[in-house]
Structure formats: structure tokens, C-alpha cells
Write a structure and sequence with these properties.
The structure holds 2 protein chains of 2 kinds. Chain A is of the alpha+beta class. Chain A is 40% helix and 13% strand. In chain A, helix 8 packs across helix 9. Chain A starts with 5 loop residues before the first helix and ends in a 5-residue tail after the last helix. Chain B contains 20 helices and 9 strands. In chain B, helix 2 runs parallel beside helix 4, helix 6 packs across helix 7 and helix 15 runs antiparallel to helix 19. Classes of the chains: A alpha+beta, B alpha/beta. At the A-B interface, helix 6, helix 7 and helix 9 of A face helix 19 and helix 20 of B.
């Protein structure tokens, strides 16, 4: 398929009702030149970097010129180790994005050849009224609203996902690579679920499943109020923590809170403070009545959510996007 | 795997009770002597000290099936607990022979217990659907047995297993690869004479039957599931099942050390009584012999009132005088399985046994308990989609760290 032209980009945007402003100028090779020619001040201009990791996977980072990008930190956050990310050479930019390295932009993802490119968008894009990009040619610049960028990405079946590119995240044994999910998967993936185990094995460095799970548990733990313990120093180890993935403790926690709330409401309404004494008996009785039913409902909910996620995962790896 | 009794004519009357995976009958057609069975098979009685140990280890009250001796026998369950105390996880293995679409409450018992074990020990579970076995023994077509396996999987899932820790597979889909390698290793260790002795195969039986036992043995070894356990050989296996499955696992336990695996541990249950009592036999052809998960509240009421064998006396006067015969009363037996509240059950036994409570009352309580159980199951079953079945049966890694 021939490479996407500037006209095709503009047509797509028009078709999708994305408003844009165009600025035509002589071909430029730097952002400074671009800003000067457009003459609207420097706010909202983008820098677009095409990067490559040691395994040949490609990443397009699209950010405001004012956002600092530290490749070393990003590399670690992606789970690629310390020196895992390099700038892609010009030949790669041309081959994958079908465009010169002077005018790289998210629009290049319209090309077939860029299917496997991972896109990381600067969350600061959402703080400016307009973002300026080259529409795949260096003699034009267009500006679109952040919502227009989203609409464009959705039209090429990409989910816009914004990342805090400047965050300094110290990746280590307690902090897994937080951007690991953005690392692209191998292109020759079969859809047969039987092959998933192979894929998961080979992707195990990119997608640390167990670690990701641990983070999930950690991030969503809710400390319960404990009368005798002071706050725990590490939310993973408190014995009163509620593991959100554990059906029994979740239901137990919810029922206890409900009973507590009901008792306080009744106490308030009837001015009967003594009701607090019966709270634990009531909690026990209610738990006996409702726990089995609620646990059944919650485990079905968990299974349903897992099933949906499972198939979303398979679908997102499918070749026909 | 549940004891679907399949009568084989043995000619003479039963001098001894006969318990095999395909036949269950008491001596002279009477009730099963479980103590004798434990002796006959050589397994251990599950005593209260083990139940206490489970409660201590898990921090919650033991399941009623454990407390009330429904699961009454074991092989090396104490070793599993010892290893667990030291931080060594194990995995659970249970299964079902999908011979019919309709499951009755007796079929649910091992699954309800297995779910409890999974929840309190937080361990992975594999569930085998032996569609090949039923194809061979019940003479179903391959396609029909596969279809039944999938339908049964939905009822099994409805029991509330956690998909992140559970792998369901059917033999027709899964046998192959590492699983088949283990089947062959097992098969090489068992002679034709041995399977004849254990399972009663005869010359006229087709070779499919003779070569089936390794299929049911292989899931006892973790290397049969490389996507779950990788290459680990030392993960222990605990098998909750009805006691008629013991022969398969006696064979497996004999083979295990020769192949370098731990012997699988077993925890075994009584047979679920038929509605008509001792003389009755639960049979797929007689819908009134059991309560099915598809029964409506009306069906349940009707079946219990009309067919549940009562230990009550023939007249109210006699009943008040002599009390009920709890040994044969089916409603009380069913309540022992399914009534959660220990105190209430004890009270019923006491009052009914003394004649102060009447059969009608006991039956009514049972109808309540069973109706809500079946209703909850039906709701859960309705939430099981084809995709969920696919996901449970997909070859994927499980959360084995709890």
C-alpha cells in the first residue's frame, strides 16, 4: 500500500469532523523553524520521536516540545532495562512511518507498515488548547484540539492513552515497570488460544504478570480500621488489609461496612446509642444470611470480568485491526 | 467420576458389598458398611483431629461436609496439611464423567466441597471432564459426549470456582502433549492383569476401556499441566472424590513413586442417598430418584413430599411414642448434607428422633433449604456464558501463588 499523503490525512480529519487550522510554509527541518513560520507563539508544538528497542520493537513518542523526555527512565518504565531505547535510524523511520524523520507525527500511524508501533502520548497534550503537528509533510503544519487527536486515533482504531512522560519512576523490586503494557507484542501471533501460552512465555519479561498482579493488590488495598494497630508501614503486609481480588474478604468487608452504616443510621434516628453494642452480633447474623449469596455473586462478577479481559486481550492481539 | 452406578450382573447374590467406579451396592442390597469399606480399600478414617487441624490452618470453621463426616475417609491428607503448614502449596484435582445433561444434588457434593477447599487453602484446581470415558462406557457418540461435557462445565462453574485459579478440561480436547506423555508413563507401569483385578475388565471388554485408567490418573501429576506448573514435579495433589473412585487412585498411588512424583492424596465422601432410600438407586432414567438442579420449586416440593423415604412411623401416635428412625430417614440425611446451621440440625435430629417433631415439618424445612440452594445455583448458571466456559477451558497460566 502506498504511503499516506498529507491530503489523505486532511481528508480523514475532515471526514471525521475534526477541526484543524493549516499553516503552509517552506519545508522546515527543525521545530524552531516550524514555530517561527507559523507565527502563533510556541505553545502546543509537538516533538515526535521514533524509538527502537533491542528487540526491534518500535515506539512513537509524541509530546509537547516543553516536556522533558529522559530515554533512560522511559526505557526502564517500559521494562526494557536501562539502555534499552535508542532513536530509530532514518531508514527505519522511512520504512515504518513512510515519512521523513523531519515530519514524524501520529498521523503516520495511518500506514499499514506502522501497525506494530506503540504510541505513547504526552499527557500534557491535554493541557493546551491546540496541538501542532506536521501532516506528514514538512511544508505544512496543522493544529488540532486535543479532542481532535483522540477522534483521529479512534478512527484508525487506536485507543488514545496518555502518559506522564516526565514522571520519574524508580523501577525496582517494589515498583514494576509502569509502562510495560505499552510494549508491542510480536507480529506473528496466532489467534489460537493454545499459542497464548507460548506468547506469554516469550512476553514474560515485558509483561510481568505476577508483579503486575502484586501492584494491583497493593494499589487497591484498603486498610481497615484497627483498634489496636497503628498504621502499617507497608500496605502489602497489614493483616487487616482487604485483598480486592479475594472474594471472601471483599464480601465480608462490604457486609460489615453496610451493617455498621445501618446501625449508625438507626442509632441516629432512634437516639439509641446502645445499638452499637449489638453491632457485632448483627454483623455476624447478617453475614451468615448473606455471605454465601453475595460471595456467589461476586465470584461470578470476577469470572465475568476476567472472561471479558481475556477475550479483549486475545482480540487486541488479532491481526486484523 | 461421581458414582453413577451402572449395574453389572454378577450372577450370584451380593455376599459382599460391591464398590467400583461402575457399581455401588450394599451387602444383600442393604446399606453400605463404610467402616468395612475403609478396611477393604485400605484408606484411613478422617477423624476429628484432622478436622481441627484444618480449622486451625485455615482460620475459618470447617465445611459442614467435613464436620459431619460426609467426607469421611482419606489417604495422606495429613501429609498435605503438614506440607501446607511448612508453606508448601498443593493443587486440587477433581472431575466429572459427563453422562447426562442433568446434574442432581449428589453430583454437586464433590464440587461444593472442592470449592470450599480452593477458597480456604487458596490453591489452584484442575477439573477433568471424562467425555471419552462416557463415550466408551455409555456408548455415546464423541460429539454428544463433548456437548454434554460443555453443558456440565456450566453447572460446575456455577458452583463458584475462581477462574484465576481453576482450569477445566475435557479429555477429547486436552489429551496430548505432556498429558499424554504422562499417560504412557503410567500405562507402562500397570499390567493387564492388574487392571483386570482392580476394575474387573474381562476379555469381551473393548480395548478403549482397558486403556482408560491412565487418563484419569494423569491429572494427579503436575507435569501434565505445563502451562500451570511448568516443569515442577514436586507439587502435591489432593483429590476430593466419592469413595467409589478409590480404585483409580490406588493404582495411581502405586505408580507415582516409580515415576518420581508424590503420591496423590485423597479425601473421600460417602455416597449421596437416593430419594427413595437404601433400596432405591439414583438413576438418570428415574427423575424421581433425585433432586436435579433444573427442578422448579414445585418439583422439589412434590418430590420430597411424595418420594423422599421417611423414617417417621405409620401413625402420629406411634411416631410420638417411638420417634423417627433416623438411620433410614432420607430428609434428615439430606439436611445433614445441606443445612448449614449445626445447632438447628442437632435440634431437628433430637426432636424428630424423640417423636416430638413430625415428618411433615422436617420435609418442609428440607424443601426450603433445597429450593434456595437450587435457585442460587440456577441464577449462577444463568450467568455462565459460552465465553466464560471457553476462558475456563483455555490453556493459560493460573494464579498459583494464591
Amino acid at each position: 500500500m502506498a504511503s499516506i499523503t498529507a491530503d489523505e490525512v486532511l481528508s480523514l480529519l475532515t471526514e471525521r469532523g475534526v477541526a484543524f487550522k493549516r499553516y503552509e510554509h517552506p519545508p522546515v527541518s527543525t521545530v524552531e523553524e516550524q514555530v517561527e513560520y507559523c507565527n502563533v507563539g510556541g505553545k502546543g508544538f509537538s516533538k515526535n520521536l521514533l524509538l527502537k528497542d533491542k528487540k526491534g520493537r518500535i515506539y512513537l513518542i509524541s509530546a509537547l516540545t516543553t516536556t522533558t523526555i529522559d530515554l533512560k527512565i522511559l526505557s526502564q518504565r517500559l521494562g526494557l532495562g536501562k539502555g534499552g531505547l535508542r532513536f530509530a535510524p532514518d531508514e527505519v523511520v522511512q520504512a515504518v512511518l513512510q515519512v521523513s524523520s523531519r515530519c514524524v507525527a501520529p498521523f503516520a500511524l495511518m500506514n499499514e507498515s506502522s501497525r506494530q508501533v506503540a504510541l505513547l502520548l504526552d499527557k500534557n497534550f491535554q493541557t493546551v488548547p491546540h496541538i501542532f503537528f506536521h501532516p506528514l509533510t514538512s511544508n505544512m503544519t496543522i493544529s488540532i484540539e486535543p479532542s481532535g487527536l483522540d477522534a483521529f486515533l479512534q478512527s484508525i482504531k487506536r485507543t488514545p492513552s496518555y502518559v506522564d512522560l516526565e514522571a520519574v519512576v524508580a523501577v525496582g523490586k517494589d515498583q514494576p515497570p509502569d509502562l510495560a503494557a505499552h510494549v508491542p507484542v510480536d507480529a506473528h501471533l496466532a489467534n489460537d488460544p493454545k499459542d497464548i501460552s507460548e506468547v506469554l512465555k516469550s512476553n514474560s519479561e515485558q509483561l510481568p504478570v505476577k508483579k503486575a498482579e502484586a501492584t494491583l493488590k497493593g494499589n487497591l488495598t484498603m486498610g481497615l480500621q484497627s483498634k489496636d494497630k497503628a498504621g502499617a508501614k507497608n500496605s502489602y503486609t497489614t493483616i487487616n488489609e482487604v485483598n480486592i481480588a479475594d472474594v471472601q474478604s471483599l464480601v465480608s468487608n462490604m457486609l460489615r461496612k453496610t451493617v455498621s452504616a445501618v446501625i449508625s443510621e438507626i442509632s441516629v434516628n432512634t437516639k439509641g446509642e446502645h445499638l452499637n453494642d449489638i453491632e457485632s452480633d448483627v454483623a455476624r447474623a447478617v453475614s451468615r444470611r448473606l455471605s454465601p449469596e453475595f460471595e456467589g455473586l461476586v465470584v461470578m462478577f470476577k469470572n465475568t470480568a476476567y472472561t471479558q479481559g481475556f477475550f479483549a486481550g486475545i482480540g487486541s492481539k488479532s491481526l486484523d485491526r | 467420576m461421581s458414582g453413577d452406578a451402572d449395574r453389572r450382573e454378577n450372577g450370584a447374590d451380593n455376599e459382599e458389598q460391591i464398590i467400583t467406579p461402575w457399581e455401588v451396592s450394599g451387602k444383600d442390597g442393604g446399606k453400605i458398611d463404610y467402616d468395612k469399606l475403609i478396611d477393604q480399600f485400605g484408606c484411613q478414617k478422617l477423624d476429628s483431629s484432622l478436622v481441627d487441624r484444618v480449622e486451625k490452618l485455615t482460620g475459618v470453621p470447617a465445611h459442614p461436609f467435613l464436620r459431619r463426616g460426609v467426607f469421611f475417609a482419606h489417604r495422606e491428607f495429613d501429609k498435605i496439611l503438614e506440607a501446607y503448614e511448612k508453606g508448601e502449596k498443593f493443587y486440587l484435582y477433581t472431575g466429572r464423567g459427563p453422562s447426562s445433561e442433568a446434574l442432581h444434588l449428589g453430583h454437586l457434593v464433590p464440587f461444593m466441597f472442592t470449592k470450599y477447599l480452593q477458597d480456604v487453602f487458596q490453591v489452584p484446581l484442575v477439573i477433568q471432564l471424562t467425555d471419552d470415558e462416557k463415550c466408551m462406557w455409555k456408548n455415546l457418540t464423541v460429539e454428544e459426549s463433548q456437548r454434554l461435557a460443555r453443558e456440565n462445565a456450566k453447572d460446575i462453574i456455577a458452583c463458584g470456582f475462581d477462574i484465576t485459579k481453576t482450569f477445566i478440561f475435557s479429555d477429547f480436547n486436552y489429551v496430548g502433549g505432556a498429558f499424554y506423555q504422562n499417560m504412557v508413563r503410567i500405562a507402562k507401569c500397570v499390567t493387564l492383569n492388574q487392571v483386570r483385578g482392580i476394575f474387573g475388565f474381562v476379555g469381551e471388554d473393548h480395548i478403549g476401556k482397558v486403556s482408560f485408567p491412565p487418563v484419569q490418573a494423569a491429572p494427579s501429576f503436575p507435569t501434565s499441566f505445563p502451562h500451570i506448573f511448568g516443569k515442577r514435579k514436586d507439587t502435591r495433589c489432593l483429590i476430593p472424590c466419592a469413595i467409589d473412585q478409590d480404585p483409580y487412585f490406588r493404582m495411581t498411588r502405586d505408580v507415582a513413586p516409580r515415576l518420581g512424583y508424590h503420591k496423590p492424596a485423597l479425601i473421600e465422601s460417602l455416597f449421596f442417598p437416593a430419594l427413595q432410600g437404601e433400596s432405591g438407586k439414583m438413576s438418570a432414567s428415574d427423575p424421581n430418584s433425585a433432586i436435579y438442579v433444573t427442578d422448579s420449586a414445585k418439583d422439589i416440593k412434590n418430590k420430597i413430599m411424595k418420594y423422599a423415604f421417611s423414617g417417621g412411623r405409620d401413625t402420629v401416635e406411634n411416631h410420638r411414642k417411638y420417634g423417627a428412625n433416623l438411620e433410614v430417614d432420607v430428609p434428615v440425611k439430606y439436611l445433614s448434607f445441606f443445612l448449614e446451621n449445626d445447632a438447628e440440625l442437632a435440634n431437628i435430629k433430637q426432636e424428630y428422633g424423640a417423636g416430638r417433631m413430625l415428618t411433615g415439618e422436617v420435609k418442609k424445612r428440607l424443601i426450603d433449604v433445597l429450593s434456595s440452594m437450587v435457585e442460587r445455583h440456577r441464577k449462577a448458571r444463568a450467568a455462565v456464558t459460552e465465553e466464560m466456559v471457553d476462558a475456563f477451558m483455555a490453556i493459560r497460566p493460573l494464579n498459583i501463588l494464591g
